Every structure is written in structure tokens, then in C-alpha cells.
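This part of the workshop introduces the protein records we will be handling. As an example, a complete record with its sequence and its C-alpha cells follows.
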Amino acid sequence: MKISRRLLLAASLMATVTAWAQQPDPPGQVRKGEKPVNEAYLFAHMTHSDYGRLYYSVSLDGLHWYRLNDGKRITDDYRGHPDIARGPDGTYYIAGNQSDASPVINIWSSRDLIEWRRYSDYTPDLKSTPGYSQALQRIGAPKIYFDEPSRQFVMTWHTPHLEGTPEDAERYWASQRTLYVTSKDLKTFSAPPKRLFDWEMGTIDVFLRRAEGKYWAIIKDETYPTLDWVTGKTIRIASSDSLLGPYKDLSAPISPNFREAPMLIPSPNGEVWYLYYEQYPGVSYGLSVADQLSGPWYQISGYTFHSTWDKYSLPPKVRHGAMITITRRQYDALVDRFGIEEPKQ
């Protein structure tokens, strides 16, 4: 088959334009010679093949992440959905559990993010939760947040109240509600657990942050998406003037449907928010960006496998966890201890 010179020339020009094309980079990065407000980042996560165990990746720009420890576990002791909080004395804490059916929440502590030691255990009386006596014995994704103004920790998790059925497996997930307890030392806890939200909708993977003069709850809307509930299985955000609510002004979806496990970090220059979320199960990660938590948010291009379009990257088959800011000294210590994957050229 003959191809005209005109078609060959058009194809050549298109290839040249594509090669020259350079999409704008995400906001929030520091200019050359500027000192970053946030020097480095740690991503504590699980993997697709070793779900529920602890792995590390790190980044210097909050966009490009590289595995530590040759892609091996950081510790064999931890099990859970990793989420790291820094306490008032600089100690780090991480919560987990052996499985959703386990009645016990386990807490580990670390001074350096390298060595983790079992710190305490907590068994909530789920059925004593006010207005939630029908709670099932399930504890999903416990997370810890330290609130500086009140000098207390808040530990959240999700618990359902309906079993799934062959006809409606999703009713189990739609029945998830976010519960919490408070603590001054993560050894003794308030009782009984309480519901964080009064919404009658499924919520999981919730974490709290304080910024911009408010408290923010970042959630996964766990109701299945339908024409009657188009926000299902997306990441959304709500705000409150108080740590324990009431939370209101629930946002429209920040992510597409079928995303979970949100993670929020400030950009290197401290002026922009990066919100990551997983397209499950282990397909890819999305990234949305805003200059204020109330939005508007937009999505950054990634996972296209075209270098001029991909503006962020994560190691393959990483699953959900937590991203936190760390200092450059902490970054260097982690790299010295575990070694870092060489960036691909």
C-alpha cells in the first residue's frame, strides 16, 4: 500500500509536535534557589501482593516517589492500614489491627520512623456506641490524629451494622459508619466510642486535619454509585469549627468514582494541597490539587506513560497508606538506613 508524501509529512510533523509538547507542571513546587517550606515526604503503604504490611517510599517534591528497602517490608510486626501521626513530644504513632474482624486496635511508636515498637492496645466496646447498638464486630482502617490546640489524640475507624447478602453484597459497605475515641496518651481512651458524623451514608478511610482556621474531615463516600447516588465511591471533604464536629458542607466529589484511601500533603512551597487517592484494587493513583481545602480541586495528569504528560509517579503496585511531611535530615536518615530505589532515567 502506497502512502502519499503529504501523509508522511503530516505524520512527521505530528510526531515532532508531540515530542516538543510540554504540559505545565503542577503548582506548589519551589523555584530554583528557593528553600522549601516542606523539605521531604514519607509514604507509608502496603503493596498489592503483601496487603496490610508496612512499606516505605519517599519523595523530595511530593510528586515523584521512590521505594526504600529494596521494596521489602520495614517491619514484620505491623499489620493494618498504615497511618502515621506525630505526637506532642515528637514521637510518631501508627495504628493497625490484625484484621477487620479483630476486636483489638494495636498501636506502635517510633522516635525516628525507622524502629517501631508496640506501644499499646485498645479494645473498643462497639455496641456501647450511642445510637449504634447494632454495630457489627468489625474495625476498619484505624487512624490517629493529634490535635495541637486541645492536646489530645483522636482515633477513628469505620464499623458496619449490616452483613452483606448474596443479593446485596454492597449493603455491608453502605452501612459503614465512622467512629472515634479520644486520648491524652494513647494508653487510656474515652468511652464509649462515638459516631463522628450524623449522616446516614457509608463512610470509610476518614482522617482529620486542622488548617485554614478550621477542621477538615477527608472521607471516602462508601455508598455504591448509581443515578440516585452519583457521588458513590469518591473522595469528598467536609469542615467544622470544632475538632469533633458537627462536620458540614460536604463537598462534591474531588475524585472520580471507585477511588479510596485519600492522603493529603502540603506542597513543597506550602501554598498548595496535594490530595492522592487510589483507584482500587491496586490499579493506579490519582492526584488532585487545590490552593485551599474548600476547593476548587482539579486533577493532575498521571499514569499515561507519556513523559510529557505524567506529572507524578509512584512505584508500581503500591496500595494505600499515609503520606506525611518529614525533614531533609529525616529523609537522609531513612535513605541511609534502608537504601533508595534509583530513579529511572
